[in-house]
Amino acid sequence: MGPSCNDLQERYRAGEWRARLFHDAVLSDVAARPRCTAVDIGCGKGIEGSAELTQSIAQHCRTCIGIEPDTEIAPPPVFSALHRCALEEAPIQAESVDVAFSYMVTEHLGQPQEFLDRIFRILRPNGVFWTITVDARHWFAPLSRAMERMRIKRTYLQLLHGERGQERYENYPVHYRLNRPSDFEAVGQGFPTRSYINLYRPSEVAYYFPPRVAWLASAINATTHAFGVPGSLLMARLQKSGAP
Length: 244
Known about the structure:
The protein is of the alpha/beta class. 34% of the residues lie in helices and 19% in strands. The protein is built from eight helices and seven strands. Strands 3-2-1-4-5-7-6 form a seven-stranded mixed sheet, with helices on both faces. The protein is globular, with a radius of gyration of 18 Å. The two termini are 25 Å apart.
């Protein structure tokens, strides 16, 4: 049995790395499927840059496929096949995948319906899709989008954390069209089983602020959460129905 919702929430609140939590959630479904075929959508350099976490999942699979459209990124050599294109263009057969997963991808989707429709088609009956993304109900999402519209986000991140893809994470355009439970409910109705986990801890957004004011960001985060604002991360698990 994989980690429960409460377990993941408590571990995150205690300071555990979000990538490890996501890895454990995905692995619970991979390990439960003998001779599993998995697809890592937007695989990058590994789950939040960790080739080890990606390898841990791949070694439990019969076949693990990577999808990474950014040709400037060198994915880890753990995949049975690697497709340098968007998911919608990848040559993956219908009903050939047991588990699909994406780490910090859905906030960048311009056409979320096409994305989920494609996942639905490639999953076998009872197949599962896991994702983790920014929860657009949190105040960080509109702040990030506003900075992008003002064309200052790239410069701000570079001054704060260094060059893209070297000293900090990749920074792609964001749309936040598949970043709330209601978004998944609207475009994921083909999946009869849909569940969501919101993750929160006060310091979760401190990384995005200068050290001198990071404490203030954490205080604001704790205050807004006390008034009902969800945490900054959303995990979703969608499962396709079994064979008729």
